[in-house]
């Protein structure tokens, strides 16, 4: 009897193993590409974008990541460790034959924003999403909305009115989060045998993100990239400790799953600084396409000289289908393969939009309703934490503010505040002229009787400039998603410096002139 049980158990086990092996995700197929123009091949450069290291929450250092990229056949890696943009990036360098480039992933109150090709910021970036987008552009960087439709709302991008420059059309760290329990339980076996194919088996067509990207194209040109969002197996938290459930795909398997291919103006020559410029310029110009390499490899696209439209330069695989998407004289190309995973299936290749490049439309000019002074019922005063110091003075419609934030981390803030006259008329905009002794951000705030504050960040520097804040653009300082009360019920106005865009022990001064409102 026992012998029969053992035999039956062995047979069932063997059947289960055979079933699991028979239903493994398909391996990647290499597509032969005979006859592709040699010059095009030399200008075709594959790499990984959105990669974390031990500098933030990744498990490997730069050398380990570069080695993994080299094994995966990549030529560049763009590191995007979490930060506030104030740390200078290491210069471009070749490591293990891979061009290593650095950016930063900044947390905002409207999602994460990746900045590449940007010098160090003069103050910490963060807070208002639109302010971070504005700062990245001002500093000459190129900004990309990260994992825009992430299942976790705090990580999804929400400010689609901000003039972002790029978008992640697919993100590996987001794609697995909508899978069922049975699929995730099966995943480790698939990964053990076919790592990249296992990761790719979790991919679906990101319908909402592609739809959003296409909609953005109607008003301005947006570059889309495929994001590895690679942290390495045993990802770490920001303090260098192993994170809870610190498991995940290795860097190499992520790099073998998808990549971005840039078409540079001339072949790379091994000089890190000039090669970095070629790669960054190609991304800025949208001269880039993405491939799900775990499905198939070997595709080449080229751009026509007359209009920059992408077209296939290598043979179309069996079961492949070209699917151009067009809008108002511009187009992008998708290539689909019948063997692609997902429901709906993920596209194998996605190019960027081609055609005349558009600049974002300038904002509409404000209406011509006359502005009137803000009715104040008190003098300007200082509000601050116990360790910081500040002085405020006002004369002839001008308010000057000098401050020193306390050292250490203790929620420092300093503010110039004044009360509004009771029963003041409603308004739709706050207007003022301002300047500061150095680049900084100041939070303009309206406070209400219950203590709730609605805020909007403004950039100041030595150049005197006019600011116009629309009340409808102000957001709650502490009640996410709350509806702002009528502006006519605000009880005070504040100009606040805090640790969102400043550092402990920072000091400075700014001046506000002609504070007024417009109905």
Any chance you could write out the topology, listing elements then pairs?
Elements (H helix, E strand, L loop, with lengths): L1 H21 L6 E2 L7 H5 L1 E8 L10 H10 L4 E4 L13 E3 L2 E11 L2 E6 L12 H10 L3 E4 L20 E6 H4 L5 H13 L1 H6 L6 H10 L6 E5 L23 H7 L1 E5 L8 H13 L3 E4 L4 E2 L3 E3 L6 E3 L7 E8 L2 E8 L11 E3 L20 E2 L7 E4 L4 E7 L2 E7 L8 E7 L9 E8 L3 E8 L5 E8 L4 E6 L4 E2 L15 E7 L8 E12 L1
Parallel strand pairs: 1-12, 2-3, 3-5, 7-8, 8-9
Antiparallel strand pairs: 2-10, 4-5, 5-6, 6-7, 10-11, 11-17, 13-14, 15-16, 16-17, 18-29, 19-22, 20-21, 21-29, 22-28, 23-26, 23-29, 24-25, 24-28, 25-27
List the total number of helices.
10
The number of strands is 29
What is the average of the pLDDT values? 90
CATH architecture of the largest domain: Alpha-Beta Barrel
Main sheet specs: 13 strands, mixed
Radius of gyration computed on alpha carbons: 27 Å
Low-confidence stretches: 13-21, 237-246
CATH top level label of the largest domain: Alpha Beta
Q: Helix amount, in percent?
A: 10-25%
What is the total number of structural domains? Answer: 2
From the spread of the alpha carbons, the general shape counts as: elongated
Distance between the termini: 90 Å
Give the structural class.
alpha+beta
Strand content: 25-35%
- What fold name stands as the CATH topology of the largest domain? TIM Barrel
The CATH homologous superfamily of the largest domain is termed Metal-dependent hydrolases
